Amino acid sequence: MFRGLALVTLAAALAVPSVAAAPAARDATGCVTVKRPAAKPDGGQKPPKTKLDPKKKYDVTFTTNCGSFTIRLAVRTSPHITASFFDLAKKGFFTHTYFHRIVPGFVIQGGDPTGTGTGGPGYSTVDKPPARTTYRKYLAAMAKTQLEPAGTAGSQFFVDLQAVRLPPDYGVLGTVFKGRGVVDRIGQLGNPNDPQGRPTKIVEILKTTVSVR
Question: Phi/psi of residue 141, each to 5°?
């Protein structure tokens, strides 16, 4: 019953051309303008029960409104930090957060679900960096307070925009090996005279993708 009507409806649907959404335009900074994402709940996460296989390569790709970049995790150097970070990325913890601190010529910093600079997953891990650690350009490391022991990590991370002289206190996360131009682009979106490092443009993490090889 109603077979003829169904065929007519199907034919009409097939006759309507599909219209793909036009990609959002990028501005002079090379980014798509987005609104500040709403704050996500602080804490509530549990650390993973297993570590990553040091014989494999683990990558986390961040897709932002300014482009994408990929961090290869330093599993051997920081087994607890990388296992936690990979697990959070896989669960979408960083999705719809933004880089709340951008200091041109120094660092870009994100990973805070609240966007205040004080949030985290609700737990911490520790991998004390080797004494020889140097914070070179495109190295990714974990942020911590001055009162926390060396190598303490939650979810907040930073990427060095140039070689910086820091004590070996910040747990090593990995190295940006793809999308370095995007990191440089993001690094321009801050006011060098602002001690708080407040960004001049919102850079949102639209999604994270993990891969293992």
Answer: -140, 170
pLDDT digits (tens, 9 = 90+) for 113-162: 999 999 999 999 999 999 999 999 999 999 999 999 999 999 999 999 99
3-class DSSP state of 153: strand
CA distance 103 to 99: 11
Q: What is the pLDDT of residues 108-123, one digit of tens each?
A: 999 999 999 999 999 9
- Give the count of beta carbons closer than 10 Å to the beta carbon of residue 20: 5
Residue 138 to residues 23, 90, 125, 188: CA-CA distances in angstroms?
29, 22, 22, 14
Domains of the chain: 32-212 (2.40.100.10)
